Amino acid sequence: MPAKNASVLGFSQGVGWDELVGYVTQTTRKNVRIQAIGDAHWRNATAALSRFPDQDLILIRYTDSPLYRTHSILHEFGHLLLGHDGCTQSKDTVRDDAHEQAAELLAYQLAQRLYRPGDYEDLRVLG
């Protein structure tokens, strides 16, 4: 059953990255592969999710800061945990803003649990 928010997941403050990734793979019943790429065509897109029968692939821009790449991954985790499909849009397709907003909210909630109190200064960079 797709999660609605991070509190449903039962994560406490300071959850580890491995625990979070493990939860995503257990929930989707697929491995998640994260690959940093980038070229001239990736100016506007910050990440993309492709869903395959045997794995989910998250593409992120290698030119972004590590903190922003983490946020992009958490956003795509949000799509996975909410049961959304992968990216099917071209540059001419209008995105589903409700799905994007829900994934973004879940990404922020996951970030709040992933970061420890000493990390809050870094977390402010994300907004």
Summarize the structure.
This is ImmA/IrrE family metallo-endopeptidase. The chain is an alpha+beta fold.
Would you mind describing this structure in some detail?
The protein starts with 5 loop residues before the first helix and ends with a helix. β2 and β3 form a beta hairpin. The chain has a 3-stranded mixed β-sheet, with helices on one face. α3 packs across α4 (97-114). With 127 residues, the protein is an alpha+beta fold. The chain has helices at residues 6-9, 17-28, 66-81, 97-114, 120-123; strands at residues 31-37, 47-51, 55-61. It is globular, with a radius of gyration of 14 Å. The mean pLDDT is 80.
CATH class: Mainly Alpha
CATH topology, by name, is: Arc Repressor Mutant, subunit A
Shape: globular
Q: Strand percentage, roughly?
A: 5-15%
Distance between the termini: 29 Å
Which radius of gyration do the C-alpha atoms yield?
A: 14 Å
CATH architectural designation: Orthogonal Bundle
Pfam families: Peptidase_M78 (PF06114)
Domain IrrE N-terminal-like: 49-110
InterPro entries: IrrE_HExxH
Protein name: ImmA/IrrE family metallo-endopeptidase
Features:
127 residues; alpha+beta; Arc Repressor Mutant, subunit A; 3-stranded mixed sheet; 43% helix; 15% strand; globular
Any chance you could write out the topology, listing elements then pairs?
Blueprint: H1 6-9, H2 17-28, E1 31-37, E2 47-51, E3 55-61, H3 66-81, H4 97-114, H5 120-123
Parallel strand pairs: 1-3
Antiparallel strand pairs: 2-3
